[in-house]
TrEMBL record:
InterPro entries: LysR_HTH_N (IPR000847), LysR_subst-bd (IPR005119), MetR_PBP2 (IPR037406), WH-like_DNA-bd_sf (IPR036388), WH_DNA-bd_sf (IPR036390). This is HTH-type transcriptional regulator MetR. Pfam families: HTH_1 (PF00126), LysR_substrate (PF03466). Belongs to the LysR transcriptional regulatory family. It is found in: Cytoplasm. It comes from Halovibrio variabilis. GO terms for molecular function: DNA-binding transcription factor activity; transcription cis-regulatory region binding. GO terms for cellular component: cytoplasm. Residues 2-59 form the HTH lysR-type domain. Gene3D superfamilies: Periplasmic binding protein-like II, Winged helix-like DNA-binding domain superfamily/Winged helix DNA-binding domain. One of its GO terms (biological process) is methionine biosynthetic process. Keywords: Activator, Amino-acid biosynthesis, Cytoplasm, DNA-binding, Methionine biosynthesis, Repressor, Transcription, Transcription regulation.
Length: 312
């Protein structure tokens, strides 16, 4: 018998292109994922993909099951929403704030999809906040906050969305452009361009510069990512951004990117919500949609560690 978990695993394998990344996506070890796929192959009495190909090359049987997954899994999601409505649990309010200047690339498709499927839930992204979003969440002024900086607040739950790597954007002619990575001391003589937020909320400071007791020669701020890229491309500074925020500029060869340290600087993005709304079907569906959309539209992101939720 083919199970929904089998179909979800095959979709993850198609979307990621490798067993290692698919295992991360569905929160299984690679050996457990391989065992599940072999079990499915024995049930259908046919191999589903060609081993040791990247991206994964599916057989005719594998393609047929992927076609089935594309048909069935959206219907399962729709049925789950309908059941929530029948149970009378569909009403809700989703006013959110975003502590991430680059998040609109994946958040707007998430909101659009969610609004189409949960018209009963009031959605708003208020602008011009003059208060800290997380305390406002605790006071019920907001219902969800996108943040990479979880704070210990009573009654607040942090649902991990995905992990991302921070990269240093430099001009193509910059001496750093040919390096695989840089150490913190390399920024001591550089102008660092950042968004106009507290340094305590920027990974480049908290995870890279401050542990090494290094400060850049100068700090310059810019409101928009495109403004930062123009400054970087013209040689007036360097800036650290999430890998997905740099994708289009790297593809157009507008700037170059360098890893921060040999191991890189990785962070987790969270959706902060109140415990009282954590189990609401519409909130669970929003979080699931956010994760699925981010993996569909962003490059270089990874599933959050399985212990990230408890660690937050």
């Amino acid at each position: 018998m083919i199970e929904l978990r089998h179909l979800r695993t095959l979709l993850a394998l198609r979307e990621t292109g490798s067993l290692v990344d698919a295992a991360e996506r569905v929160h299984l070890t690679q050996s457990a994922l391989s065992h599940q796929l072999k079990d499915l192959e024995s049930r259908v009495e046919s191999p589903l993909f060609v081993r040791k190909t990247r991206p994964v090359e599916f057989t005719r049987a594998g393609l047929r099951l992927l076609e089935l997954a594309d048909q069935i899994l959206p219907e399962v999601r729709k049925a789950e929403r309908d059941l929530a409505r029948l149970a009378g649990t569909e009403q809700g309010r989703l006013h959110m704030a975003i502590e991430c200047h680059s998040c609109f690339q994946w958040l707007m498709p998430t909101v659009d999809y969610f609004r189409d499927h949960w018209p009963e839930v009031e959605i708003d992204i208020p602008s011009g906040h003059h208060f800290d979003p997380l305390p406002a969440l605790a006071r019920e002024q907001l219902d969800l906050v996108i943040t990479a900086d979880p704070q210990p607040l009573e009654g607040i739950h942090y649902a991990p969305l995905f992990r991302y790597e921070g990269l240093l954007a430099v001009a193509r002619q910059h001496p750093f452009a040919g390096r695989g990575f840089i150490e913190p001391q390399a920024l001591a003589n550089e102008t660092l361009i950042t968004y106009p937020v507290e340094q305590s909320r920027l990974d480049i400071f908290t995870q890279f510069l401050q542990p090494a007791n290094v400060r850049p020669r100068e700090i310059r701020t810019a409101e928009l990512t495109i403004m930062m890229m123009q400054l970087v491309a013209s040689g007036r500074g360097v800036c650290a951004l999430p890998n997905w925020a740099l994708t289009e500029y790297l593809e157009r060869a507008y700037v170059s990117a360098v890893k921060l340290g040999e191991q890189g600087v990785w962070s987790t993005l969270y959706a902060a919500i109140r415990e009282e709304t954590r189990e609401a079907p519409w909130m669970q569906d929003f979080l699931r949609t956010a994760r699925e959309t981010s993996f569909a539209v962003l490059s270089g992101v990874r599933p959050a560690d399985r212990d990230a939720e408890s660690a937050a």
